[in-house]
Amino acid sequence: MLFLDVQGTLISDYDKSPIDGALELIRSLNKEKIPYVIITNNTKKLDFLNYLQNLDFEINEKVYIDPFCVLKDHLKPCKIAAFGAKEFLDSLQELGYELDYKNPKAFLVASYDDFKFQDFASMIEYVKNDIQAIAMHESSIYKKSSRLYPGVGSIMAMLKNAYDFDYKVIGKPSKAFYESALNLLKQQDINANFEKTLIISDDFKGDLLGAYELGMQTALVLSGKISSTQGLDITKLNFIYDSIKDYYISRFK
């Protein structure tokens, strides 16, 4: 069974189009009835699954999960402070959360390429006042317009270095998120466990290391955030592919 990342793995970081071989892989998995789950740290579009379907990916809600899908399991709708792109803030409000930067029950952090130091100062103030801290995921870096930006994991590490505190992670690579992905398979009467799962992603630190520690097999694709294995501990990788097309060819051709 497979866990499949999206950004940089199935779709291009450059123009969001399907990476060569990605559509064919999903069609083949469906045809051969090979269990898989699409696991993404998307924190912008509530309708991201529909977006992928419009790109001709033949996937449905039974095999798709992102942090929005499980957020309410960790934090019921309440007053929150949220930091991220406007799409993220809009999506949270659509889910029933109320933005309140004066008296929030928790503060949430998502990927964003326009953070200000005033934002970080506000986060530190919340931490000092024992406001619950939530990282929507823990990606190390992300790619936009051919440039690399620090991901939420890196932002939280910076804050933790400034003022020690604990925080909850909703998406990858948290164990809870990966267990939720397994549960999607179990709901289909599939005997799923981490040891039988191969995860394919372009994020070595943000996705694969956590998966490796849970006993999953790991496959790194060099089509997204990183283009080489230089500086990586490749002993934590079972497979390395230039792109998802290489995996598709090795599996189905």
TrEMBL record:
Q: Which domain of life is it from?
A: Bacteria
Q: Tell me the GO molecular function terms.
A: phosphatase activity
> What UniProt keywords apply to this chain's record, in alphabetical order?
Hydrolase
Q: Show the taxonomic lineage.
A: Bacteria, Pseudomonadati, Campylobacterota, Epsilonproteobacteria, Campylobacterales
Source organism per UniProt = Campylobacter ornithocola
Matching NCBIfam families, A to Z? Answer: HAD-SF-IIA (TIGR01460)
- This one is known as HAD family hydrolase
What GO cellular-component annotations does this UniProt entry give? cytoplasm
